[in-house]
Amino acid sequence: MNDSEPRTLDCGKTVEELSDYLAAGRTPFDPRIETCPECLNALQGLTRVSQLFHSLIQQDVADLPAPRENWFQDIMTNIHREVRAGRSLPLPHPDNRVNLSLTEGAVLALIRTVGDTVPGMLIGTSHLEGNVEELGAPIDVSVAASILWNQPIPDAAHTLRALISNALTKHTALNITSINITIEDLHEDMANKDMEN
Amino acid sequence: MSALVQQPDKDRLEGVADAILVGRAVSGDTGAFETLIRRHGPLMRAYTARIVGSMADADDIVQDAFHTAWRRLPELRDPAAVRPWLMRIASRLAFTSLRRKPAEVELAHLESALPADMQPENVAVRNAQLKALSAALDTLPEDQRRCWLLREVGELSYGDIAQEMELPAATVRGKLARARASIYAQMEGWR
Asked: Which of A126, B71, B83, B188 is the most buried (most CB within 10 A)?
């Protein structure tokens, strides 16, 4: 088959044109295509090829041999080597010859850990905004979370805010000026799904 | 500090949206990233194997892809679109590896890379059709095949494919249309 030769239907449209039309989600609506039996037939064929291709990949996925031993572990080992420490947060100490600090990564992990204890809640991204490297600088905390679909959101957000506030006061010297919580998503309880059914 | 920080039960992360997992992973949670690997790893392995034609090579490439993804995750602008982003990283590495080993390109038939009992001949449903499609895909020129795979599996936009392949968007559009037309013609007997 010649690569540059356009495949023209009897009605004069090329398969390339139809492919473009399909890729654009059949918009804007082209009455000349949508009323032509030749074109409609080709559109259906092109759609089926695309669906078939998805079946092919799904088939590949279903038939995938297990990866070699340690495949997964090797990835995780590499990743654990590159832990995200982030910035260094100073902690006060009565002896000024002593420098104490906490990593930003540890604080974010603390936020996740306390946040995840709120029933039905899972913490997403969290940020410390402000100059955390300067003792006493005002810091805004922003936290995104997903909540189990049947949990009351205001109660959970209130509990989350209180837990984060307590944990940060107890374990860091940050001067927290605000804690902003965004519920980004709702999720289902996959762990207990089987028990419910 | 580490005593304070526990990983959540892995099952709890399973039903959670990609965007939340990405957010956790960006903030340093390796457990969330592990869930992303389990969720998207199989499609990435299948997709990469389609490109490089060898399961063993695909597994190396997908490992590299996840390692790269972990490092570059903070740059991901739309965390909900992590799957196409992962596919793009995997396809980039896959095509780089193909260029490094040009001799093997001609042998890029996945069937030969899979164990005998997994070959399409032994898969009852639509096996002949799928095989014909697989063969049609293999006859495409490499750039067309790459456009097709990026579009159909990677779900990349024309603009993203153009950027990925360092080609003008209009050229990508032409290549995709030709790939579709060519596969369509070769599949004529199966429609």
From this structure: A126
Structural domain span for residue B137: 114-186
Domain assignment present for residue B181? The answer is yes
List CB contacts (< 8 A) between B135 and chain A.
none
Q: At what angle do helices B55-72 and B82-100 cross, to 10 degrees?
A: 130
Q: Which of A27, A179, A13, A24 is nearest to A107 (CA)?
A: A179
How many Cβ contacts (< 8 angstroms) between chains A and B? Answer: 200
pLDDT per residue of chain B (191 residues) written in tens, 0 to 9: 444 455 556 678 888 999 999 999 999 999 999 999 999 999 999 999 988 888 999 999 999 999 999 999 999 999 999 998 999 899 889 888 877 765 444 444 444 444 444 444 444 445 777 788 888 888 899 889 888 888 887 777 888 889 888 899 889 988 888 888 888 888 776 54
Domain shared by A86 and A177, yes or no: yes
- Three-state DSSP class for B99? helix
Interchain contact, B30 vs A76, CB within 8 Å: yes
CA distance B101 to chain A (A): 22
Count CB-CB contacts under 10 A for residue A197: 5
Same domain, A31 and A102: no
Judging by DSSP bridges, how do beta strands A121-129 and A138-148 pair with one another? antiparallel
Which residues 80-109 in chain B show a CB within 8 A of chain A? none
Phi, psi of B147 (to 5 degrees): -60, -45
